[in-house]
Amino acid sequence: MILEVAVLPVIPRKKEQFEAAFRQASTLISSMKGYISHELQTCMEDENKYLLLVRWETIEDHTVGFRGSEEYQQWRKLLHHFYDPFPVVEHFTLTQSYV
User: Mean pLDDT of successive 10-residue segments in the chain (99 residues)?
Assistant: First the structure.
């Protein structure tokens, strides 16, 4: 499993519009091959900052499959105009787990 991590800096006063667009965009990403799950969290210190966590079976499911798809083009149209600056997206793999 791969964990995609993105800190999303949303333009101030666009929070409600962003969250509505994200709900719509969620149906796009969740339909993709290799998709496992995703969550969106709001920063407690900065209400205009969000953390997006997406779990994929492989990194290629995200970087090739999703980003190369028509669904990604729709995702971009729905969400990318809310970000300033544009987010950095990184991928992580589990090293150790503690319960």
Answer: 98 97 98 98 98 98 98 98 97 96
Report the length, in residues, of the chain: 99
Whether residue 78 is contained in a domain is answered as yes
CATH number at residue 75: 3.30.70.100
Residue 97: inside a domain: no
Please check whether residue 9 lies inside any domain of the structure.
Answer: yes
Residues facing 71 on adjacent strands: none
Domain housing 37: 2-92
Distance CA 68, CA 88 (A): 18
What's the number of domains the chain is made of? 1
Helix-helix angle 15-29:70-79, to 10 degrees: 170
Sheet with 35-42: strands ordered across: 35-42, 49-56, 2-9, 89-92
DSSP 61: I
Rounded to two decimals, what is the model's pTM?
Answer: 0.95
